[in-house]
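Milestone M4 deliverable, item 7.
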Amino acid sequence: MKSIRDLLKLNNWSTQKKRMFALISSFIASLLLSLLYYSILSGVLYFGKDAQLKKENHAMALYVTEAQQRLDILEGATNSLAHRDRMIYKSIFGTYPIDNITSSNLKSSENLDAIIANADQVRSYLDSIASSLDYLGTSSYNIPSKIPVMNFSLTQVGASQGRKMNPFYKSIAAHNGLDIIALTNTSVIATGEGVVESVVEKEVRSGGKSLTINHLNGYKTRFANLNKIYVRKGEKVNVGQVIATVGSTGMSLAPHLHYEVIFNGRYMDPVNYFFADLNPDEYNSLVILSENLGQSLD
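Output delivered:
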């Protein structure tokens, strides 16, 4: 028969065994729970990172698409500008310019925003120029931009538009055009396309024989002190067409052509419209000579 001491020892051992079992069970449960948490957390982090990568890839795709759209817009704007520039250049100079802008140059640029902004600014400038040119007629040939006498040289320059000394009254008076000294019967040409608006065949006191051309764009040109007139009222004339000859009719001190450019009723300085026939140096010399002559010939 077991003693009380033996029973107590057996009871303590049973209690310790239960405690150890509970401790081991708790440890295993904690370990399993930790593994479960780790699995869940890893999955969440992985899928979160994957979602972030997908989001970044989507944003990059949108950026690439937007960049391509901007490049397409830029190329379209550039092509439009190039076409309009060529048309304006062709209208003024009668030939096409050499192209300097290519799509390969544009694609090599990294700053699309700046290029698009510059293109928009240039396009606005061209729009402004185009709107300003609307009144000039169907072509540059309607602009009176040539020297009105054949075989012109700078030594033929007389008094320009402004207040000049009248050779007959010896007083300062308005001089509405440019005097071009030339021999009698020197050919006079139309400086722009238009229609003959009026012809004065009689030797009137003011201007002698004269004619006026309406260029149908706000511009008119008047040729005075003529000798012979080869056109009639209502006749259409072309640039460079011989329309008359130089004379000394009317109140004229010597044979010369009195030439006027009128825009919307205002007398303009004809020297400013000789850009089709003069280089910059010749133009500067012409301006200086005409402005420094204080006496007109009519």
